[in-house]
Amino acid sequence: MIIKQKGCHDIYGLEAKKWNYVSQVIDAVCERYHYDFIRTPIFEASELFHRSIGEETDVVRKEMYDFKDKGNRDITLRPEGTAGVIRSYIENKMYGDSVQPVKLYYNGTMYRYERPQSGRDRELTQFGVEVLGSDDPMIDAEVISLAVNIYKILGLKGIKVNINSLGDQESRDNYRKVLIDYFTPYVNELCEDCKIRLEKNPLRILDCKIDCQLEIMKNAPIIVDYLNEESKKRFLAVQKYLDLLDIEYEVNPSIVRGLDYYNHTVFEIEADIEDFGSQNVLGGGGRYNHLVSQLGGPETPGIGFAMGIGRLILALEKEEIQLPIEEGIDVFVMYVSDTEKEYAVTLVQELRMNGFKAETEYMNRGLKGQFKQADRLKSKFLILLNDEELKENQIKIKNNQTKEENFIELDYILYYLDEQLSSFEESDCNCGHHHEEGHHCHCQHKDDGEINF
RNA sequence: GCGGAAUUGGUGAAGUGGUUAACACGCCGGAUUGUGGCUCCGGUAUGCAUGGGUUCGAUCCCCAUAUUUCGCCCCA
Predict the structure, then answer these.
(1) N or C: which terminus of chain A carries fewer CB neighbours within 10 A?
(2) Could you give the number of structural domains in chain A?
């Protein structure tokens, strides 16, 4: 038997419905924030990732899914979304578009050659946004608020935003020196990885999970103290806008992010979920004002963030949040004889063309089997075709909840179903969603007056 | 890259070094001659991840591989 590759998943059934629902929420929110969808290739030249993400990062050093193609080109399956979007921005000269800044979002699969575990796969799906062309701190706050809103609309509670600033190049260089000076006397106390980091990327020592226990960490210099005037002002402005948007956040000096292209604002969004381990970080991002020029475009400020959809859905499941997913069908058409079957074919077609979710029998089951099938499909109504009754232009329809049966004129069936089904839509919210019995509406439009699909 | 646990049918699983591998759910069929969801009856693994080894004999013991799963590093 051929089975799926390590760290990959088949998503189908209810799981697939959840994914689609989350995507719908993302699309709706992005539309309101006026972000345009962009779809870039899943594979790119390897060099793109080496140059953008950084040679020394773990993602590039040990997680790249790369190979040679038949033309002997070095190809990599994208490990994240930003690099491809920036490449596209430059290649398509979007910096010349009449509408600026350019606000984009993507939602697609990424690949990392990792050891799979809970909340981490080799094929993962990320949704993310990128804003290019504006350095306004207000955009930083907007991007964070967009992410937070998506989590809120989906019903996640306990969302925590951690922010930090890496400052501009001057601040960062300055801080880098301070860090090296600080840690060098203690080099023998550091773990093996951090000894290497001390030379290559001292910032990452700060979020080392091993060395964070050390005494020297507590007194380590904090970057915020080494920001120059301008960077400090900028960071405070971001916080001001977050306050205005009523977003709770915490300044966390240990957030440095694993990709090299970030400067100024960096942030991570985590869910406060028990037993979620290190998988509680649902998304993260930051500003990258030199990435575009680094990849050969004009000097262009940018900011973005990404969230893992798989991990998000895991979080929703852990929190037992019911999504308003439609289940079941409107009507199941039953038949026995061949002439009834012929009528069923056309009737089902007509029902479908008029917007009803209609099903019929394909497995040659007896009437008993068809009743069972209709129940499995959670059909709200049953239509029982009968040759004798059809001759009289009559059709028998049964409400599968009340068990009430009625004879209806053939021509009247669409109207009848329409009327009957609308009584199923009763719900104390009017979000337009259909909520199954016992499910609650999480659209939150009533509370926030914001999003309504 | 490192470490722990697991792998029996469509599903959940029990089990033993020795003839036909429990049980339950599901599914299909029948009792019920065109109104079911209850009940009863019947059917449903030449098979216990794969490859070696130990043995008279292995699903059960040993080794390896694969996969799943949970951690570490890192990340979403």
Answers:
(1) N
(2) 2
